[in-house]
Specification:
The complex is a heterotrimer.
Chain A lengths: L2 H19 L5 H26 L4 E4 L10 H20 L3 H18 L12 E4 H31 L7 H20 L3 H19 L5 H28 L8 H4 L8 H15 L7 H5 L5 H10 L1 H16 L3 H22 L4 H22 L2 H32 L10 H4 L1 H16 L3 H13 L4 H30 L6 H5 L6 H19 L1 H17 L11 H23 L15 E2 L3 E3 L5 E3 L13 H25 L2
Helix pairs in contact in A: 1-2, 1-6, 2-5, 3-4, 3-7, 4-8, 5-6, 5-12, 5-16, 5-22, 6-7, 7-8, 8-10, 10-13, 10-14, 10-25, 12-16, 13-15, 14-15, 14-20, 14-25, 15-16, 16-18, 16-19, 16-22, 16-23, 18-20, 18-22, 18-24, 19-20
Chain B lengths: L8 E6 L5 H10 L11 E3 L7 E5 L2 E2 L2 H11 L5 E5 L1 H5 L9 E3 L9 E3 L6 H22 L1
Parallel strand pairs in B: 1-2, 1-3, 3-5, 5-7
Antiparallel strand pairs in B: 4-6
Chain C lengths: L2 H30 L9 H11 L9 H20 L4 H20 L4 H32 L4 H6 L4 H4 L1 H14 L28 H24 L4 H21 L5 H25 L3
Helix pairs in contact in C: 1-3, 1-9, 1-10, 2-9, 3-4, 3-9, 4-5, 5-8, 5-11, 8-9, 8-11, 9-10
Classes of the chains: A mainly alpha, B alpha/beta, C mainly alpha.
């Protein structure tokens, strides 16, 4: 099969499936279509890799040389109408204003004839970065959709007050997948913007799934911030419509942007920053955590927010070495620092994962802003490992939440003895995120090395941020790990909780965990065949990465990745814990985790993590970060206008 | 080769003592007697200790405690009862709250008499306790 | 010489040196307190005895975690001397330190949990420094391995006085010396009973002790990096620093964890960060 047709299938197939799913109300039929459709999408993604075959970059148009014509405008109108309809229903004013402003730009460009006719052979661009994204979306996405079958069943059973609209839910998931595929292969900017906004709408609808007042508020916040980003995108298109070949992403980002292109690049970076929830636009992602876990896993960790950093990575060669680029990098790195500080104070596990996501994305933004081959390498590596590990973590938290009815990490006490198999998978996710000096940690190491080469006080500031930020991540992941790894004796009922986890959940989470381990084991291969060549193609220089050089490093990394999961497995296989009492000043302490207290009483032992309340004020830090990054962002846009 | 004679770690528990014997035990740690010369360390944690040094007698409240502390100590372990109260209830043996001496609750290996027991006796008792420790180690090794 | 020899040498000899250092520590502390103190080889006797005790386990996973802790601590030194990238070894060091926290926390008991949480605070306080120290050393000498730094003509301690001062502060933390010994301390025990090791007995304690010896040797190696004239000079500098640590340990009392965090971060930011900033601004 040729690459263009496979890519076309990747965009169309999930969209069609989404349409079909919106009509199916019978659960068994719907589940079957989800499973079959998911498998088809995954297979198609893999086939596309084969069809791609390792070329540096392929450009193509719509099949049969069809031109776009007015189709984009029609879709724009449709999306705007949808936004206005919902805004009217829920009486919101900002969203329709932003949507109508975007539509206004599109209409103006069309009517005033400002849009030059795009080269029909260069509508789509597929290179290694797109392939990485396609694999992430196409392999992780279906797993999450299938997992959602089991999750939503348990979710609705435990939340009977929420009206089940799973028809809409699943169809939205597939429509979203289609839009993401379209986004990552688009070369023509107005086309990308359409897919961009479809993902915004999908996110909005999925966050508001439960239709409580709270979630509707958060859904609209997400909608507003993303529409604002889209508006920036639209303004960039206006500026670029004057430039020859300006709307061709590959041409635009081929070399450092100069002169008139710089403001447009800055505005596109602005759009990327809002989409990937960097400060000052982080609050929408935190609010999105109120959506069901599959939404968080799919949209808000592995794919949609990655669209933002994907765009920034595409822009990286254009921003390379410029003040605009450095300011973009600081937005990302300062975000990383601030959200790491706030994550330390957070008890809600999903929110901790969200802050961690924003932080990791901030690192990618930092890398993209500076624009060297090493940092591009780091950025793509983080994308791969973060997508795998974080989606696994969100799915695990979803599974745990449905069984323990809590998201508070204080209640994850002794998870290892309560749900050993679930804990083992959870540990793989956490290991993939940071314990392994693999994946994210190796990316941090390379990033620090790369920042060494940045001249002036900017380099020192970046390294300071990395040092303090990394230490903070150790702290909050360490807290979670302590809770998971602790143990106590369980009653038979408690031990049976794990048996209620559905097949769908076991299967998908197990596969994702295997994926994390496989990616970790193959990091050298990934670097040599995928990420390294991408960096070479984008920056015309091979990244100097230290992976393949030292076998000792590989040994340490492999062992570290397997360490915690192995321990989890060992404890699963031998679930009885020695009945030696812990020391409680000689008091009897035993079953049910109680101990004898004064005057013959009994007290329950509760152990609560440190949240550094007296030292870090979470709300204050978040607000400070919003202000600081907002200022840097404003400076970035202003600088781009001023520098010529 | 057994290291127990070179590194005996002590857990000092005060039952219902008048604190006289306790002060003498603490005196052993001071520069005048300095038991650290022999590798003795006063840990506060039964899991780290080899020798349970008990002063004072057993009453209603601390029966459970003494039993738990002894149980939480890993093998091999010895108990040294220091002072008259720990050995036999002392002058408080007939008091309404005193249940008796330590060996009503846990097996005692060495009895150090005295009211209050002198540091020299205590150190001597600990040395005998070390010998008992070594014997136990050889028996169960 | 083949760097693998150095690595192996570290794995074999570091505990010997660490143990001797611990012995000297106890004798010097005792003399400062007017006592005689234990024999020099006392720490070895202690570990030998601990290995002969039966181990009472609360949570069986504590043992593999502690073996891993010991292994990675040894590996950090081996990697460092064996020629691995300096910044990478800091990450392995952090992993090793974290494993001790996990082993302590796994017991799910009040004292060891409190010790584990405080140790996390200690990690949070000291990690930024180590990363920044290695980065500064790499920047000054232009080298990225142990050999490279020693071979460099740039004298690190002269160019990085701030880093040196901050190192002395952070070393106090890592060596478990007052006033920063909030999570675990050598004898005498402290307000959290034994802190991290409250629920470890027998073999497990022996692993912790051995890992601490490796850690001491590792800090000596870091000092050699800072005083990169030659290895003997570095070791001598470490000896002087250690003597100061023992003095401070005996002269101060423990401070609260909030103050530990704040003071260490302030010192890291001002001393280390300032030094680094100066380096970058001066364009080396």
């Amino acid at each position: 099969m040729s690459l263009p047709s496979i890519v076309f299938a990747l965009v169309v197939l999930p969209a069609v499936l989404g349409g079909i799913l919106s009509l199916l109300t019978r659960a068994s039929l719907r589940n079957a279509i989800v499973v079959i459709g998911g498998v088809l999408v995954a297979v198609a993604s893999v086939v596309s890799v084969v069809a791609f075959g390792g070329a540096d970059g392929t450009f193509f148009g719509l099949p049969g040389n069809v031109t776009l014509g007015q189709s984009l405008l029609v879709v724009d109108v449709g999306l705007t109408a949808l936004v206005v309809a919902f805004a009217v229903k829920h009486r919101r004013i900002l969203a329709p204003i932003l949507a109508l402003a975007q539509l206004g730009i599109a209409v103006y460009l069309e009517v005033a004839g400002r849009l030059p006719e795009p080269d029909p052979q260069r509508l789509f661009w597929v290179d290694r970065l797109s392939m990485v994204m396609i694999l992430v979306i196409g392999l992780i996405g279906p797993l999450i959709c299938i997992n959602a079958i089991g999750y939503m069943r348990a979710y609705h059973r435990s939340n009977p007050m929420i009206e089940g609209r799973r028809t809409v839910f699943f169809s939205l998931l597939f429509v979203f997948l289609a839009a993401m595929f379209g986004l990552v292969v688009s070369n023509y900017l107005p086309l990308m913007l359409v897919f961009w906004e479809i993902t915004t709408i999908c996110s909005f609808l999925l966050i508001g799934y439960t239709r409580t007042d709270e979630t509707i508020g958060y859904a609209f916040r997400a909608l507003n911030m993303n529409l604002l980003g889209g508006l920036g995108f639209g303004l960039a298109i206006v500026l670029l419509s004057n430039q020859p070949g300006g709307l061709d992403l590959a041409l635009l980002t081929h070399s450092p942007a100069a002169g008139a292109l710089l403001p447009a690049v800055a505005l596109l970076a602005f759009a990327g920053i809002t989409k990937s929830a960097q400060m000052p636009f982080s609050s929408w992602l935190i609010g999105a955590m109120y959506a069901p876990s599959p939404t968080s896993a799919l949209l808000h960790s592995s794919t949609m927010v990655k669209a933002g950093v994907f765009l920034l990575l595409r822009l990286s060669p254009a921003m390379s070495g410029s003040t605009v680029g450095y300011l973009v990098a600081f937005v990302g790195l300062l975000t990383f620092l601030f959200v790491s500080l706030v994550a330390v104070t957070e008890q809600n596990t999903k929110k901790v994962l969200a802050y961690s996501t924003i932080g990791s994305l901030g690192l990618i933004v930092g890398c993209a802003g500076i624009g060297t081959p090493e940092l591009a390498w780091v950025g793509v590596m983080i994308i791969i490992f973060h997508a795998l590990a974080k989606s696994l973590l969100f799915l695990m938290v979803g599974t745990i939440e449905n069984r323990l009815y809590t998201k508070n990490m204080e209640n994850f006490d002794a998870l290892l003895s309560l749900m050993p198999r679930v804990s083992a998978l959870f540990l793989i996710g956490i290991s993939g995120m940071f314990i392994a000096p693999f994946g994210i940690a190796i990316a941090k190491w390379t990033a620090i090395r790369a920042f060494l080469a940045v001249p002036g006080p900017a380099g020192a500031a970046m390294i300071l941020i990395m040092a303090f930020g990394s230490s903070l991540t150790i702290f909050y992941w360490g807290k979670l790990l302590i809770k998971v790894l602790s143990a106590r004796r369980q009653s038979d009922y408690e031990r049976s909780i794990e048996n209620r986890v559905s097949r769908y959940e076991w299967f998908t989470e197990g596969l994702l965990a295997l994926g994390v381990l496989a990616a970790t084991a193959c990091v050298g291969l990934i670097s040599d065949h995928v990420v390294g060549p991408y960096a070479l193609a984008a920056f015309s220089a091979t990244p100097r990465v230290f992976l393949a050089i030292d076998p000792a490093i590989l040994l340490v990394m492999l062992s570290a990745t397997l360490l915690l999961p192995l321990i989890g497995v060992i404890s699963w296989l031998s679930p009885t814990y020695d009945q030696a009492d812990f020391y409680a000043s000689g008091r009897s302490a035993n079953v049910g985790h109680v101990m004898g207290a004064a005057l013959g009483g009994i007290k329950r032992v509760t152990l609560r993590n440190y949240y550094l309340d007296g030292v870090i004020n979470g709300g204050l830090v978040f607000r400070a970060g919003t202000v600081a990054c907002g200022a840097v962002l404003a400076a970035m846009v202003a600088t781009s206008m001023v520098i010529r | 080769m057994s290291f127990f004679s070179r590194s005996p770690w002590i857990l000092h528990y005060d039952g219902s003592s008048c604190n006289g014997c306790d002060i003498e035990v603490l005196a052993c740690l001071t520069p005048l007697y300095d038991v650290e010369r022999f590798g003795v360390i006063n840990t506060g944690n039964p899991k780290h200790a080899d020798i349970l040094l008990v002063t004072g007698s057993v009453n209603e409240r601390n029966i459970e405690i003494v039993r738990n502390l002894y149980r939480q100590m890993p093998d091999p372990k010895v108990v040294v009862a220091v002072g008259a109260c720990a050995c036999s209830g002392g002058i408080f043996a007939r008091a309404y709250n005193v249940q008796g001496d330590i060996d009503k609750v846990i097996p005692v290996d060495v009895y150090v008499p005295g009211c209050a027991a002198r540091p020299e006796s205590i150190i001597d008792g600990v040395v005998q306790g070390i010998a008992a420790l070594e014997a136990k180690q050889r028996m169960t090794a | 010489m083949n760097p693998a020899i150095y690595a192996l040498g570290f794995v074999v000899f570091a505990p010997v040196l660490g143990g001797l250092l611990a012995g000297v520590d106890r004798i010097v502390s005792a003399r400062m307190q007017g006592r005689v103190g234990p024999p020099l080889l006392q720490p070895f006797y202690d570990v030998g005895k601990l290995l002969q005790k039966r181990t009472r386990q609360i949570n069986p996973i504590a043992e593999p975690l502690l073996i891993a802790h010991l292994g990675y601590m040894a590996a950090t030194g081996a990697l460092l001397l064996g020629g691995t990238d300096l910044i990478f070894t800091v990450f392995v060091f952090a992993l090793a330190a974290l494993l001790l926290v996990l082993a302590a926390g796994s017991a799910n008991s009040p004292f060891s949990f409190a010790g584990a949480e405080r140790e996390l605070v200690v990690l949070l306080a000291s990690e930024p420094f180590f990363i920044l120290m290695m980065v500064a050393i790499c920047k000054v000498t232009g080298a990225s391995t142990f050999e490279g730094v020693l071979a460099s003509s740039q004298l690190v301690a002269v160019q990085l006085p701030g880093v040196l001062l901050a190192f002395l502060l952070v070393a106090t933390i890592k060596l478990r010396k007052s006033p920063f010994d909030i999570s675990i301390s050598h004898h005498p025990h402290q307000e959290l009973v034994s802190g991290l090791t409250s629920d470890m007995s027998g073999r497990l304690l022996a692993y912790v002790e051995l890992a601490h010896w490796y850690e001491s040797a590792l800090l000596c190696a870091f000092m050699v990096l800072l005083f990169n004239w030659s290895v003997p000079v570095g070791v001598l500098a470490f000896a002087v620093a250690y003597a100061l640590e023992v003095l401070v340990d005996n002269a101060t009392s423990r401070i609260k964890w909030q103050l530990v965090l704040r003071s260490t971060w302030a010192a890291t930011l001002l001393l280390c960060g300032g030094n680094l900033l100066a380096l970058f601004v001066m364009g080396r």
